[in-house]
Amino acid sequence: MAVLLLTSATGAPGVTTTALGLALTWPRHVLLADCDRDPAQAVQAGYLRGLEHGGRGLVSLAHLHRDGAALGPEVWRQTLPLTESSEPERRFLPGFTSAGSSRLFEHVWGAVGDALAGLDARGIDVVVDAGRIGVNGLPMGLLAAADAVVLCVRSTLRSLAAAQIHLATLGEQVRALPTTPPVALAVVGPGRPYSAAEISAQFAMPCWLEPAWDPRAAEVLSDGADEPRRFHEAGFMSRIRAEAKGLSERMARGRAHTAAVAGVAS
Ligand SMILES: Nc1ncnc2c1ncn2[C@@H]1O[C@H](COP(=O)(O)OP(=O)(O)O)[C@@H](O)[C@H]1O
Ligand SMILES: [Mg+2]
After folding, report:
1. Quick one: pLDDT at residue 102?
2. InterPro entries per the record (predicted)?
3. In the chain, which residues have pLDDT < 50?
4. Residue 134 falls in which region: left (phi positive, over 0), alpha (psi -120 to 50) or beta
């Protein structure tokens, strides 16, 4: 399985923008899952420019779960295409549509996490936009499905101070899982003012992603702004494509290692 979960501490460092950038450049079939408990419909209203979701998404999965359906076979049916091309397939699972719906979801996260993780058997990786960690932490059922967790921060002191606080919660949560996934940083806009190397040293954590500071490119992803010329080939997207490739290879190595350890243990 290859589930990459992206989250943040406070503010809006760029989780959705980074997750979408990865999903649009990921080298394998990929699903971007909007699991932000603070509903915003950011991808539908932004990059997808108001595309009608036709009732598909997390809320439908919750109804199916309530009716006793297994979510594994259903999850792909609840998705929308992110791109016209299907080589590789890039799809999107819409998130919550009303303010209270995530509260009704506590008992559904485990089944959703399992269904997302199960897509690996069909050669599909998953990028989860988990939104903010929040005061009570991330849903454990969702976190349990993650092969790796990436905390998105900006490179400012304000963002880093908040990250320090919420990392304590996240750290406790991942250590409580049967298999602890690696936790790394994404520094959105490194060098404004601190470099990714400085931040990584300060937090004693690796930095796996350094999305460039590029408000114009970011606005295409976050708000559906018009794409500048050669948007997908140059600058911001070309850098994130290289990072997506590195990350996907890193996760494949991690899976191979876990499988080998499991093989030795059994
Ligand atoms: N790499 C970046 N460079 C410049 N601006 C960015 C970058 N990533 C995100 N942003 C901007 O930051 C704002 C918040 O982004 P968003 O992805 O919605 O954050 P979050 O999901 O963490 O709340 C948006 O206006 C977006 O365009
Ligand atoms: Mg977001």
Report:
1. 85
2. P-loop_NTPase (IPR027417)
3. none
4. left
pLDDT recorded at residue 70: 96
Closest CA to 190 of 210, 171, 219, 163: 210
CB 237 within 8 A of CB 229: no
Closest ligand 1 atom, residue 42 Cα: 18
Q: Which ligand is nearest to the Cα of residue 17, counting in written order?
A: 1
Whether ligand 1 lies within 6 angstroms of the CB of 130 is answered as no
Domain count for the chain, please give it. 1
b/e map 213-249, b = 16+ CB within 10 Å: bbeebbebbbebbeeeeebeeeebbebbbebbeebbe
Q: Which ligand is nearest to the CA of 13?
A: 1
Written as six digits, the tokens of 63 are: 């109804």
pLDDT at 171: 98
Q: How many residues does this entry show for the chain?
A: 266
Q: Tell me which residue range forms the domain holding 48.
A: 3-265
189 touches ligand 1 (CB under 6 Å): yes
At residue 240, the pLDDT reads: 98
pLDDT of residue 104: 81
Would you say the C-alpha torsion 222, 144, 246, 188 has a positive or negative sign?
Answer: positive
Question: Tell me, what CATH number does 35's domain have?
Answer: 3.40.50.300
Ligand 1 mean position, distance from CA 218 (Å): 6
Class of residue 254 by CB neighbours under 10 A (exposed 0-12, middle 13-18, buried 19+)? middle
Alpha-carbon span 160 to 60, nearest angstrom:
36
Q: Is the Cβ atom of 222 under 6 angstroms away from ligand 1? A: yes
Confidence at residue 230, expressed as pLDDT on a 0 to 100 scale? 94
Atom of ligand 1 nearest to the CA of 189: 1
